[in-house]
Each structure stands twice: as C-alpha cells, then as structure tokens.
Amino acid sequence: MSSRAVLRIVAIATALSFTASTITFAREFRAADTQNEDYPTVQALGYMGSLISERSGGRHQIKVFHSRQLGEEKETIEQTRVGAIDLNRTNVAPIGAFVPAMNVLAMPFLFRSIEHLQKVLDGPIGNEILNSFEPYGFVGLAFYDSGARSIYNSVRPIRSIDDMKGLRLRVQQSQLMSDMIRALGAEPVELPYGQVTTGLATKLIDGAENNWPSFVTTDHYKFAGYYTLTEHTMSPEVLVMSRKAWESRSADDRKLFREAATQSNLFMREKWKDLEQRSRRQAEAAGVTIVTDFDRKPFETAMAGIYAKAQRDPAAAKLIERIRGVQ
Ligand code: GTR
Fold it and tell me: Is the CB of 233 under 6 A from ligand 1?
C-alpha cells in the first residue's frame, strides 16, 4: 500500500472515531424511584434531568417515574439490568443481590457516623465502588444520603435486645437484612416498600426499620408508634444507569451524565438534612415514642455471625477493613 493510501485510511479512521465519540442521538431516559414526588431522591433526579437537558441543548431529557410507577425496587433493578429502564435510584440493600459490594455498604454497624459514611463515599473507596458495577449490568453514577435506619413497631418500645423477641419486622428484599433481623431475635418479613403501610395497618407485620423521612412520608409512623434509634445501618442510596444505555452513549454524553449525577448529590444533601429534621419533628408531634436510651452493645455483638459470613468473601473482607480504617 502506498504511503498516501495509508494516510487516507488513517484520516478516515480518525474522522470516524471522532464522529462516534461526539454524535449522540437525542433521547428521553427513563428513571425509576420508589419514593414519592417530593422525596429528595426524586427531586435530585429532576434536578439532574434539568442539568442534562440544559447542557445537551435540549437533546436529552430524563423522565422520572416516582412512587413505584415502574414497579417495586427489586423489579426495577432487574429491568435496569436488562436495559428496559435507563436510570434507577435504589437503596444499596436490594441491589446487593446483584452487585456484591452493595451488601458491604449495607452491613450493620459498619459506619461510625454519617460523617464517616460520607468520607468513605466521597473518597477513593466510593469512587472504586461506583466503578465496579459494570460486570453486573449497571454503571454506578452517584451515591445519595439516606441517613441511618432504625427499628420501629406497634407492640412495645425496644430498649434491649430481649424486646426484639418474636416481633415480625418487615425488611427490604435482601438476604442480608433478613439475616440481620433474625440475628437480633425477631422474625424478618421481606416485603416490597409499597406494601409496608398496609402490612402495618392490617397487623401482618408488627414493625419495620427505616430512616426518619421514609418512616414519616409513608405514614408508617401512624401505625407503629415506637421508634428506637438503633441506627443499625446507614445504607446509602445509589444511582445507577443500565449498562445497555451507557454503552450506547458517546464519551461526551457519559461525562455529561457523570457530572450531572455528582452535582445532583450535593443538591440532594441539602434537601435531605432538612427533611430528616422535619420528619422527626412530625413524628414527635404525632406522639411517637422515641427511644434513645437503649442497650446498643448486644445489638452489635449479635452481628458477629453476619460479619463472619460476609468476610468469607475476600473482596468483601478487604473492603470492610478499608472502610473501618477511614478516619
Ligand atoms: C428507603 C429507600 C428506598 C427503599 C425503602 C425500603 O429508605 O429510600 O429506596 O429501599 O427504604 O425500605 O424499601
């Protein structure tokens, strides 16, 4: 081949690869969230959508399907994995069945405080975790705050681990969460989020566990008047994109999505703090008994089996150790 022919081939190839990385097709991206329209995660998705629409000159839009319009969390995760949903904001516990590192973030009593959690998620560990989703069919875009989860029920105030005995407590659709409740002496009932209020109202379950905003915005507090600040997990929320949708995007689009997701996290944090405080005040005003003086140590000790099981996986063991080491 003459050198001119080679040069022409190189020029064409360069032009093609340039085109592939910059041309993107206008699209509406479907995003799922189980929470209601006013919830901070849903608001954050809306904010991210406005950034993307603005920065893409209106080419891309995000349509947010909140309030379980696309199904319960577990189903939407499955649909996102196969590419039927483009974006999904989910809690780390239910996605733990699909992406192993997510279960580590849901481990009970792993984080010492919200500050510790944020330090981990905002630093290199958080970044590595977000970059580890692809083999499982997702791309991790951002974490969102979700405070700490605590146990509530309608039967009695929980002040010691003995008070847990025999209670039927709803958990997310997660083996780890079921194991945790069982290790605490109660009976776990895996139910989708949308069925918890009815479950409480009909006494199918005695209680559940969640953060202040979820406890209040779902009306659970109206049926379960004892809330013990166990703060047993600090499972954050995670925003993922379906790998299928990601692979169809140019490098420029990928950057656009990543940046907008990161910015939506900061937006969400402000909204979150405010709602957390308002929710607690609302529960207090409604007469919910808030137990702060409970005997925490036995709760932590009861988790030994769960840690032993998780640490059988060397990658999980290493991640747990690194997270604990973050000061
Ligand atoms: C909430 C979380 C939801 C869902 C829910 C649950 O705190 O935001 O994504 O996981 O808990 O308990 O099902």
Answer: no
